[in-house]
Amino acid sequence: MTTLRIAGGKVLRPDMSVIEADVLVDQEAGEILEIGPDVDGEDEYLDADGSLVIPGLVNGHCHVAMTLLRGYADDKPLDRWLQEDIWPTEAELTPDDVYAGTKLGVLEMIKSGTTAFGDMYFMVPNIVEAVEESGLRARVGHAAVTVAKDDEAAEEDVQTSVEIAGQYDDSEDELVSSAVMPHSLTTVATEYFSDFAEGARGLDVPLHYHANETTGEVDPIVDEEGMRPLELADEHGLLGSGDYLAHCVHIDETEIDLLADSGAAAIHCPASNMKLASGMAPVQEMLDAGVTVGLGTDGAASNNDLDMFDEIRDAAMIGKLAADDASAVDAETAFSLATTGSAEALGFDSGRIEEGANADLAVIDLDAPRLTPPHDLVSHLAYAVSGSDVRHTVVDGEILMRDREVLTLDEEAVIANATDHAASLVARAEADD
Ligand SMILES: CSC[C@H]1O[C@@H](n2cnc3c(O)ncnc32)[C@H](O)[C@@H]1O
Ligand SMILES: [Zn+2]
Question: Where, by residue number, does Zn(2+) bind (predicted)?
Fold first, then answer.
């Protein structure tokens, strides 16, 4: 057994208490072995003096390769943003673009303390190649869209989503797992719902889709089907334990109960919901009803970064506004959304510093003016820490970043390559205009 010792700092425990302790990791098992003062054993060492060891953050919903479209189209609502700017440009994406954009995204995540993420996109093999090089943990999938396609193309897209899920199916040792991913309840025709449900249940993998993001998406379902979108999803077998739904902004009490009863999780994406003016998700209500709620950035084109510390703060702020209650989505709750919440939603044994859990950790440098004085470190994690305060990042016991140097990726080369790919992608899209 080889071990990693993270020593000399403070450690955030699952009950949100902060203790002075070392963390010992079994690198072969990729698990936390021991937490305590002066633990024994050390093949590798990380200094945590003046720092706080926290569970790595889990980005529950992302389109990682969309980093190439960061800042390309802002200040529009979802529908116009997708139809006028994003989808025409995505039509020009090549596998190499997706690889370059994913590399940029995983670099940004490692640098801001994210250790695992859930991704939904296309050209999944190119995404997986970049993720595996980075050392991050991820659940990935191919999002199928069937509307505005002929039957053959629609069926092929549905099949691809199921096949990709089978190809990257869960395996004990793998950092990459998968899910079956209909894009949303409006961009996939109802006649295909059972194919997704049967595909996912047959493979024993989750379903992941966008749900109830805008009123423009909810109202047509209510008008045409005479029921709420999550009732429709439930009726077609798309709501089960282990499934996770992005957004859940416009959901009513019946739908909240459906989530709680089925065990399906919601992934809250506050920055994207604010930027696209989609609305405010009832996060505190969902939590009070017993729904598992995780946190995600959505793509970098609607956020516009992948820093989960921003997301935690946004979740706390908008959670209070949505509930009209300053005590709603408090600091501990907001931080839990990004750790235990997202980890549970994605089916990862991560998000907490506990013996036996995945050794997915981030170490925060507390020596910054914005983190002074240290009255309450959980308050700082929710309201004051920024991704740039992350000093070390560890996934599965492997050090991905030491003292802000990313060890698995060549930072300069990744940025240069993504810049080139973004420029030629946009040039191609604009030439077609
Ligand atoms: C077909 S791959 C995934 C697809 O989703 C698009 N997308 C990005 N952000 C959102 C969002 O907030 N709601 C719905 N769809 C979104 C992305 O551009 C890809 O085309
Ligand atoms: Zn999304």
Answer: 61, 63, 210, 298
Question: Do the domains at 3-55+354-406 and 57-346 have one common CATH topology?
Answer: no
8 A C-beta contact, residue 247 and residue 286: no
Half-sphere exposure of 376 (CA within 13 A, CB side): 9
Q: Look up residue 341 and give its two tokens.
A: 């919440």
Q: Is residue 274 a contact partner of residue 319, using CB atoms and an 8 Å limit?
A: no
pLDDT digits (tens, 9 = 90+) for 105-117: 999 999 999 999 9
* Nearest Cα residue to atom 1 of ligand 1: 143
Model confidence pLDDT, tens digit, residues 131-176: 999 999 999 999 999 999 999 999 999 999 999 999 997 666 689 9
The four Cα atoms 80, 82, 84, 90 give a dihedral, to 10 degrees, of: 180
Q: In the CATH hierarchy, which fold is given to the domain comprising 57-346?
A: TIM Barrel (3.20.20)
Domain segments of the chain: what residues? 3-55+354-406, 57-346
| pLDDT in the model for residue 38 | 80
Helices marked H in 294-338:
308-323, 331-336
Name the CATH superfamily housing domain 3-55+354-406. Urease, subunit C, domain 1 (2.30.40.10)
| CA-proximal residue: ligand 1, atom 16 (nearest) | 82
DSSP-assigned beta bridge partners for residue 267: 246, 294
pLDDT at 171: 66
Integer distance in angstroms from the first to the last C-alpha of the chain?
Answer: 58
Pick from 187, 167, 190: nearest CA to 179: 167
Centroid of ligand 1 to alpha carbon of 260 (angstroms):
25
With a 6 Å cutoff on the Cβ, whether 377 touches ligand 1 is no
Å from CA of 422 to ligand 2 middle = 20
Name residues whose C-beta falls within 8 Å of residue 160's C-beta, 6 or more positions apart in sequence. Answer: 142, 144
- DSSP per-residue codes, 177-225: EE-BEESBTTTS-GGGHHHHHHHHHHHT--BEEEES-SHHHHHHHHHHH
CB 156 within 8 A of CB 122: no
What confidence category does residue 357 fall into, taking pLDDT thresholds of 50, 70 and 90? very high
- What integer is the mean pLDDT of 207-225? 98
**Average pLDDT score, the chain:** 97
Angle between helices 193-203 and 151-167 (to 10 degrees): 20
Closest C-alpha to ligand 1, atom 4: 121
